[in-house]
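Thread: Modeling a multi-component assembly for a lab meeting

Hi all, long-time lurker, first post. My supervisor asked me to bring a structural picture of a complex we are working on to next week's group meeting, and I have zero experience with this. I have the sequence lines for every component (698 residues in total). Could someone generate the structure of the whole assembly? Inputs are pasted exactly as I received them:
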Amino acid sequence: MPKKNPNKNNSVTLKEVAAELGVSAMTVSRAVNNSPNVDSKTKKRILEKAKKMGYTPNLVAKSLVSSKTYTVGVVIPEISHSFFPDVVRGIEEVVDSKAYQILLTNTSDNFEKEKKVIEALKAKRVDGMLISSSLMTDNFSYYKELIKSGMPIVFFDRCIENIGASCIKVNDQAASQQITEHLINLGYKKIGYLSGPKKVSIGKARFDGFNIAMIKNGLPVDDKLIIENGYNEKGGYDAMKKLLKLPAKDRPRAVVAVNDPVAFGAMDAIKDANLRIPEDIAIVGFTNDIRANLVTPPLTTVNQPAYELGKKAASKLIDTIQEKGDLVENVELITNLVVRESCGSLLYK
Amino acid sequence: MPKKNPNKNNSVTLKEVAAELGVSAMTVSRAVNNSPNVDSKTKKRILEKAKKMGYTPNLVAKSLVSSKTYTVGVVIPEISHSFFPDVVRGIEEVVDSKAYQILLTNTSDNFEKEKKVIEALKAKRVDGMLISSSLMTDNFSYYKELIKSGMPIVFFDRCIENIGASCIKVNDQAASQQITEHLINLGYKKIGYLSGPKKVSIGKARFDGFNIAMIKNGLPVDDKLIIENGYNEKGGYDAMKKLLKLPAKDRPRAVVAVNDPVAFGAMDAIKDANLRIPEDIAIVGFTNDIRANLVTPPLTTVNQPAYELGKKAASKLIDTIQEKGDLVENVELITNLVVRESCGSLLYK
DNA sequence: ATTCAAAATGTTAACGCTAACATTTTGAAT
DNA sequence: ATTCAAAATGTTAGCGTTAACATTTTGAAT
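Re: Modeling a multi-component assembly
Sure thing. I ran the full set together rather than chain by chain. Output:
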């Protein structure tokens, strides 16, 4: 068992390779970094010796010199469902191709934790951050300062717009309006809305879209039919339960959910109440979660290109880090309505 | 627009705070690190000034001194499906509670990329690594050297056992045997197997379990009914297609898939061939993917506690890093058979 | 007032690397 | 053989921090 000082790693340094060969550390540095002006024989000797000694460059030291870590922070509100993993896959792919890596952090939709992890990422001197924020709309100062400090930031999906950072997202409001109008066109009039917290960007945008659709079509927006809760299955289940407690005649005939997990939870609540989807209550979601076409009945939803969103956000961040192109940009990726069975229809009956 | 040198970050240093206050950098260091022997008034002055100046400690420099990064590398073969995101959630939770963060890397099940990312993680001087390896069973030397170098490693799910690193996984072989015997007990005799590459630990273990079950029950293992392919939906689809090309009388009456995604792909292939599950071909999986109870028919599978597996692996790694407890340990988490409808039954017909 | 240990603060060097500059070596042209 | 620019190699200092040791200040006990 090789003894070792617990606080010191025992890895080989440039200097040790240099000493072994009787050259200077600088020459070794040049050799391992493919710098010019190194004799090819010297280089060969050095690389061989370095390999034999198990030399691995110390990027911590290198970062201290260069002020670059080739690491980007990724801040997401949850890891498990299908949307964020797909986004992360897109991010990873782009970032890896540019020789960066990602420090992944999860905020559990908690702004205090969000601030905490961002401070940690700052301390670790990431070259930039990709953030899907759980931030309240009334507290931008934190991010304004972060951006002012020069940290490259790209928001994605849950954006804070127009405070100096780029934003990659989908046309939440328009898509939400579109799917609501789809229900309206199918003949539904009494439509409820299962919202996430409206202080989150997507919460507000999607709710606005719902409202616009209703108003534009002369339908009443009934506050009793709008329930705000979390962005996950449990949030949807509990919200729907509340709607179902209303007297039958007051209940919505159709429901728009802020995202698919909420819709799934709501569907469970509807089934638990022994009601049928869509015959008793129709429902639509937003995300096109991996489960959307598997639930019973399959969920009508808005397809959000998660993987592409991740790729685009990562490209934009790396461009920002490398100061290429227009620095600040708001990008809206295209969504499309995916009509399945959960929305049913009131026509031709 | 604040001008800045692209290669220098403009963050405030200890020394700058010190100069501003006319004290030494060391005193500032002590103040911000809560070291003893700092006058409480001095400390207060320093902390206030540091805050006002926007000081954030530079962990890169700190790491260079301490040889600790409070970062662990996580190496997984894919990001998108339900199993690994759940594992990562477990990892993140534990690691965060100990003030570590994770550098997440994706190998796409490619051993060359696996080596590449591990080299990058070494260069970044992570304090340890959590690895789910796509490694060939005949090439342990790479990992043996990595472990010998003193890098704390914990394998999870796809382990390389008994080469000096801990391993957290489920009882793959026994569980695979159990689910195969479940099929046998339901009356199936002609059973096929959709395998992942057997050079991956779980590939071999699960296949062994299948074989043991067959042999123990006096059933023939027919090589033509065993197809090896990838661990994902497409792998399962293509593998099943091959089985379906057999003359009807040679086809398996039931199929064991190495994991749920492979089972999902196979189910699509079966449906595309206009056959019924389980009436024409029964099928079982392994994982208890989030989709397993949603597909039609719901998939009989082995529940693998992904989140707990992630938590356990992370705890073990941090214990190893901090040199607590027995260093090397093989842990098998408990699985349970989840019987749904895809396995059907040949009994009482 | 003096003493002196404890508390507070300061100085130096080192972590591993590379930019910037300095020196030595090489080898083609005379 | 000498010259001298180009190529190869070396030296120094600094990135931001802290461990280890050095010095100064404090204040209770005399």
